[in-house]
Amino acid sequence: MIIDGKQIRPIWLDEDRFTVKVIDQRQLPHRFVVADLTTVDQVIHAIREMFVRGAPLIGVTGAYGVMIAAQNGKSASNQVGFIIQECERIKAARPTAVNLAWGVDRVLERVHAASSPAARIDAARAEAAVIAEEEAENCRLIGVHGAGLIEAVSRRKNGSTVNVLTHCNAGWLACIEYGTATAPIYEAFNRGVDLHVWVDETRPLNQGARLTAWELGKHGVPHTVITDNAGGHLMQHDRVDMVIVGTDRTTHTGDVANKIGTYLKALAAWDNNIPFYVALPSSTFDWTMTDGVKEIPIEARNPDEVRYIQGLANGRVTQVLVPPESSPAADFAFDVTPARLVTGFITERGVCSASEPEIHGLFPER
Ligand code: MRU
């Protein structure tokens, strides 16, 4: 995306063709910091601590992590064995987004087909780059397919403002380019649709308030940050025309894991007869799980993320404690929205309902 006149992605390969550069998203929107990743430990740290985050970006970071493992293991007596071990460590960094294991395994397959240490490094680098480009293109196509849905609402409203509610950050920061949930928004905005986005702040780490608001603002998209609990009220008063969210893992039966709080938005949308769309690339479908509520692993993170809140104070990014020092806290990072509450999926191949036959209809090879 173009930010302040410069083309930028959340991850790229340095000119040395080995160092992986990432935007440290923990620091946004108040500081723009780039971090270098040259070891697998750094890759795991960046994923776990959320320098990089969002399912497609985690997948691409994991993919480049295999290249780093191959490079750092080039003199090992058993380079392939070393890479396999490192891949297992990378895949364990975060459990919910299926893209991580998908990206790592895809690169590993290329590594297995190569026959020398140098060829394995080259194969990993090439495949990681292909995945990054594919994900960017998939998100562009999600934008094209999803923009039609926003335009249809705009026509129904005779061109008056379309209000879209989104949760967390499923923007380009999470996805290389365009985003998943934001891609239809950017595309419709670029086509001249009058729209406005309600941005859930998304506690505890405030990906909506910090990242989605920053992205939309940089692109000139009208938006308002709201508390996570405001959506139901706005829906009751006809101030939301549609909800579009991303996902970290969606079963091939249509159950959607996404940032904690998404399920409550889906319930409120259902109760108010408001369309609830989920935008995702095919890399986020889990083709093995059938019952999302029972089977999708939900990440439990450090409760300090709930206890402390980060912001700018006197020109410095700082953290403050909210509850009583002695109160225990719990940090459930994701929840699962059952397929029955989802109006449809917006994918790179088009829009379908949240049903197994329609999902497989779009992706018959699975
Ligand atoms: O914990 P995060 O920030 O990695 O969570 C991922 C998300 O940003 C959302 O759940 C998003 O909607 C899906 S990823 C495009």
Keywords:
4-stranded mixed β-sheet; 2 domains; alpha/beta; 7-stranded mixed β-sheet; 366 residues; Rossmann fold; Four Helix Bundle (Hemerythrin (Met), subunit A)
Explain what this protein looks like in three dimensions:
With 366 residues, the protein is α/β, with parallel strands linked by helices. It folds into 2 domains: 2-134, Four Helix Bundle (Hemerythrin (Met), subunit A) (Up-down Bundle); 144-362, Translation initiation factor eif-2b, domain 2 (Rossmann fold, 3-Layer(aba) Sandwich), CATH 3.40.50. It is 42% helix and 20% strand. The strands form 6 sheets. The chain has a 7-stranded mixed beta sheet, with helices on both faces. 49% of the residues are buried. It binds 5-S-methyl-1-O-phosphono-5-thio-D-ribulose.
Q: Can you give the helix content as a percent range?
A: 40-55%
Strand content: 15-25%
Number of strands: 20
Distance between the termini: 31 Å
Quote the CATH topology of the largest domain.
Rossmann fold
- CATH top-level class of the largest domain: Alpha Beta
**Mind summarizing the main beta sheet?**
7 strands, mixed
- Gyration radius from CA atoms, angstroms: 20 Å
How does the helix and strand content classify structurally? alpha/beta
CATH architecture classification name of the largest domain = 3-Layer(aba) Sandwich
Structurally, the number of domains stands at 2
Question: Which regions are unreliable across 5 or more consecutive residues at pLDDT < 50?
Answer: none
Average pLDDT score: 97
Q: What coarse outline follows from CA principal-axis ratios?
A: globular
Number of helices: 13
